[in-house]
Amino acid sequence: MTNKKRVHQQVSECSVNLSRYKSATQRKLTSSTIAWSIFFLLLATTSRLFAQNIVTIPVETAKNAMVLQTDKDGRLGIIYFGSRLANNKEYAAIPNQYNLKSDNLPTYNSAYTPAGTWNVIEPAVQITHADGNMSLDLKYVGSDTKKIDANVSLTSILLKDPLYATEITLLYKTYFKENVVEQWSVIKNVEKKPIRMQKYASANLYLMGNDFYLTHYNGTWGNEMKPEEDHLSHGIKSIDSKLGTRANLLEPSAFMVSFGKPATEDEGKVLLGQLAWSGNFKIDFEVDNYNNLRLIAGINPYASEYQLAAAQEFTTPAFIYTFSSNGKGEASRNLHHWATKYRLLDGEGSRLTLLNNWEATYFDFDENKLVDLFKGAKKLGVDMFLLDDGWFGNKYPRDADTAGLGDWQENVKKLPHGIGYLVKEATAAGIKFGIWVEPEMVNPKSELYEKHKDWVIRQPNRPEKYYRNQLVLDLVNPAVQNFVFGILDTLFTKNPTLAFIKWDCNAVIYNAYSAYLQKMGLPQSQLYVDYVKGLYKVLERLRAKYPTVPMMLCSGGGGRVDYGALQYFTEYWPSDNTDPVERIFIQWEYSYFYPAIASCNHITNWSKLPLKFRTDVAMMGKLGYDIVVDKLSEKDLQFSQQAVATYHSISDLVWHGDLYRLVNPNQNPLASLMFANAEKSRAVVFNYLTNTRFMPGATPQPIQLKGLDATKNYTVKEINLYPGTESSLQSTTVYSGNFLMTVGINPDVDLERASVLLEVNEVK
Ligand code: DGJ
């Protein structure tokens, strides 16, 4: 029964100094059992003391707020999530407007739902104490908001069990201007013996509303980021991964939740979120009995019970989210602004255009063939040549994906003069040189496997099961971490001008078992988590020594694209599928979460669609080629050379401009999107036909542009034309921004002009 009792709440801005509290606690804990009892007595008194003051904690960005508040018993709940109120004193009155309390029902809005006491709903945290007891209650102890700089703040809230010495700190890092929040938790074992954690979420949100729509993604190799939008009904819908490595292969953690009705590009309330973690994740979306949405995001508890020794703490990965009341477009721009400034490596910098040899040669190359390809790269005008898979292994040469992985010595038949020679030849050809590695993996047909079976993740007494003929190395083991670091370190030490790394990861974890954990007497259930921690340790170490070298994050396509990994990488490979029509859809969906500067788009021969179409699609991100330049016809070569030059002239817009999606290919036979600079003086518009069925004439309707200044005047010029073709558009007509954004412009897309690129320039 709904209890209509309204609790008069006194707002207190009371904030306890966390560090003072913690050190006092620690001192007490080192004393005798009597001291323990005194401590808990004090704690109970403290809790009661706090319970008398209702504490309201707003976590705010420029446009949004999440507001937390303690109840009369000192338990912390979320009372508001949405647009920021003008007067933050009014947050305290919000609960009075909701009738959510019922004495015998759980507190659905808990800021971090503990398991095993009275709150019998899906928990955010579940712990077995040292004495075997499985109950947890969490009460507010204190909070603190620190300004890291003018834009970034960190709010920490300490919660504690009144009975057991478990401390949990909830952390909220806000990026004010970008409207992005990073949220995570730190669980500390202050007991004298190890505790075990069955669930340890990063974030537990409570979203008030009546109808929620979840957009989530499924996929597989070559078929990444297929969106689905569901109306969430009562109960729990989860998205998760249990794949270990290559965790996003079937489903990434990135999602959108629309409030009330499905958000469009420019309308509706929408939250975009993801877990910054390159391993197993689970995100629960639970519509409760009040029709509100509980959201719990974190590492997947599946097979991942984690032990915490006394005094040890566990920091969960960050759940990253943004909210917008103005649709998905603004929300995604929030993420782009945040990512380029704060997360993606060198997000505000530039990128290298390149020629990759994977689809051009596969494993079939030698140094002469490669040196010939260098000339092609130079002819094209790209910055770099990227040597892909197949350059290593001698006892078991890497001539196919069945052997050699793990043996990182140049294959003497293919490369008798080694990588050093290739770097030198590339430099002589006037381009940079980059290289592919897949350092986390091993083929059973390799010297590494023969020598170090104990480094391989495999069940000792079960038949091995392979994914792409390979197994995963046990990155939990520090010796394996050293080995993986050493592969890259040796390459850089021997070739200091090596300009680029493509880091691949092609297998999932089967038969999860770590010989190292066994040896150390640690539970096998820590494998999935410690693997990712081991991976990050290696990447951390690599970045400490090589902070700037660009690296592409690849996982057999887009099997590992997340903001956990992207802090170490400059870019990612969205998919092995380079069919341009498929890529329009794949790149479109990724664009909600990641900026275009990070999206590696290569022109290949996967599809026989015209080269211009393939090129125009690749240009809406970071341009690359994967072709044999010498096989291009004269006209195709001429076009490509011009295209590379054109790309260099617009790349600043694509890399650093604001993205506006104009026509959605999921709803139309056309895709249209544009990038405009912050000054609104220049933009580039990409238009693609996505359906090659007969259409009578060209696009019937104009496309309304966005992101321009209504009061400015502009010309619109078609660019990247194929040699010998002329634009059907008048490039000298001057339009007002008002006209272009209200009436729009017709790019004249039809079967003959299946892709049209427009450059918009202010006329002064
Ligand atoms: C998978 C990647 O996605 C491809 O681009 C290529 O590097 C192959 N691996 C090489 O094995």
What would a concise description of this structure say?
Helix content is 23%, strand content 27%.
Q: What is the residue-averaged pLDDT?
A: 93
CATH architecture of the largest domain: Distorted Sandwich
Helix/strand/pairing category: alpha+beta
- Estimate what percentage of residues fall within beta strands: 25-35%
CATH class of the largest domain: Mainly Beta
How widely separated are the two ends?
67 Å
Name the hetero compounds present. Answer: (2R,3S,4R,5S)-2-(hydroxymethyl)piperidine-3,4,5-triol
State the shape.
globular
Segments where pLDDT lies below 50 for 5+ residues?
A: 1-51
Radius of gyration: 28 Å
Kindly report the CATH topology of the largest domain.
Beta-galactosidase, Chain A, domain 5
List the helices and strands and how they pair.
Layout: E1 11-12, H1 18-29, H2 33-52, E2 54-60, E3 64-70, E4 76-83, E5 125-128, E6 139-147, E7 152-160, E8 166-175, E9 180-189, E10 195-207, E11 212-218, E12 226-231, E13 235-240, E14 255-259, E15 269-275, E16 281-287, E17 293-299, E18 306-308, E19 313-315, E20 319-324, H3 327-343, E21 354-356, H4 358-361, H5 367-380, E22 384-387, H6 418-429, E23 432-437, E24 441-442, H7 447-451, E25 471-472, H8 478-494, E26 500-503, H9 515-519, H10 527-545, E27 551-553, E28 571-572, H11 580-590, E29 600-603, H12 611-618, E30 622-625, H13 634-656, E31 658-663, E32 670-676, E33 682-689, E34 713-719, E35 734-736, H14 737-742, E36 755-763
Helix pairs in contact: 5-6, 8-10, 11-12
Bound molecules: (2R,3S,4R,5S)-2-(hydroxymethyl)piperidine-3,4,5-triol.
